């Protein structure tokens, strides 16, 4: 049977600002990426989200981003590989403190937003991020855009990697995601998005905005928790995958 992980970015509230439907979404997915305080989240939110994940038996990952609360980590910054190493290591350690305090263990690391997209194309940044993950814990799984520099960097250093595909994003012909400032970057038609996800998982193909089929390796599918219809969307995607004889389970569960 084909297997795939279903992940969601959670823990993105901050202080008095509430974002997402974390409690309702978490039972729909198998892995969660928890914001670590740079692009979103704060210590209280991180702790609550970790406890929520553990209570629901959902695998936990750190979601380190750029230090940009105002821009939600989606604006590119001119950072060095050393900057990337330091900020990723710092954020992994911060989240893991809460995970360990609750008797849990971390499964993976997935960079967020602009940091994720920069590392998908820039080899030196990708290598710095992979090194930070490896130095912290070589047993962690590195999530990255399928076919990206980040996935290759993780494999070179000896990490287990998981190629990620996106349920609600369109692709360019080079395999990159369509930038959010361009028209049609986000798929709003649920039927189209669900059909795309099933095809990606079963066939390893997705059609780019230019009409070209590109090959992908879908180990994990991302659902964005800040989408207005995220809860319905997550349920529909999981049902569609399972009805297509696809086993939905955390990437860290072998066998």
Strand content: 15-25%
Main-sheet strand order equals: 1-2-3-4-5-6-9
Q: Tell me, what's the shape?
A: globular
* Tally of alpha and pi helices: 8
Structural class, by secondary structure, is alpha/beta
Rg, please?
17 Å
The share of residues in helices is: 25-40%
Overview of the molecule:
- By secondary structure, this protein is α/β, with parallel strands linked by helices.
- Helix content is 38%, strand content 18%.
- The chain has helices at 22-25, 43-55, 81-101, 113-121, 123-136, 149-157, 190-203, 230-243, and strands at 2-10, 31-35, 59-63, 108-109, 141-145, 160-166, 205-207, 213-215, 220-224, 246-248.
- The strands form two sheets. The protein has a seven-stranded parallel barrel, surrounded by six helices. Strands 7-8 form a two-stranded antiparallel ribbon.
- Helix 3 packs parallel to helix 5 (123-136) and helix 5 (123-136) crosses helix 6.
- The longest helix has 21 residues, at 81-101.
- The mean pLDDT is 94.
Q: What is the strand and helix layout of this fold?
A:
Layout: E1 2-10, H1 22-25, E2 31-35, H2 43-55, E3 59-63, H3 81-101, E4 108-109, H4 113-121, H5 123-136, E5 141-145, H6 149-157, E6 160-166, H7 190-203, E7 205-207, E8 213-215, E9 220-224, H8 230-243, E10 246-248
Parallel strand pairs: 1-2, 1-9, 1-10, 2-3, 3-4, 4-5, 5-6, 6-9
Antiparallel strand pairs: 7-8
């Amino acid at each position: 049977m084909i297997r795939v992980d279903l992940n969601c970015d959670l823990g993105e509230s901050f202080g008095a600002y509430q974002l997402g439907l974390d409690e309702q979404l978490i039972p729909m997915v198998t892995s969660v990426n928890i914001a670590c305080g740079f692009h979103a989240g704060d210590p209280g939110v991180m702790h609550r989200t970790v406890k929520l994940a553990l209570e629901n038996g959902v695998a936990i990952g750190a979601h380190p981003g750029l230090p940009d609360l105002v821009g939600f980590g989606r604006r590119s910054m001119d950072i060095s590989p050393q900057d990337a190493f330091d900020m990723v290591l710092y954020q992994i350690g911060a989240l893991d403190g809460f995970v360990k305090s609750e008797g849990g263990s971390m499964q993976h690391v997935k960079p967020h937003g602009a940091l994720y997209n920069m590392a998908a194309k820039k080899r030196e940044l990708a290598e710095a991020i992979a090194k930070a993950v490896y130095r912290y814990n070589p047993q962690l799984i590195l999530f990255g855009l399928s076919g990206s520099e980040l996935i290759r960097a993780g494999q070179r250093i000896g990490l287990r990697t998981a190629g990620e595909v996106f349920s609600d994003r369109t692709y360019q012909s080079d395999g990159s995601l369509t930038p959010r400032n361009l028209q049609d970057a986000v798929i709003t038609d649920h039927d189209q998005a669900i059909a795309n996800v099933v095809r990606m998982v079963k066939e390893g193909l997705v059609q780019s905005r230019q009409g070209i089929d590109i090959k992908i390796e879908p180990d994990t599918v991302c659902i964005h928790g800040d989408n207005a219809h995220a809860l319905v969307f997550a349920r529909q995607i999981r049902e569609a995958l399972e009805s297509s004889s696809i086993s939905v389970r955390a990437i860290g569960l072998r066998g």
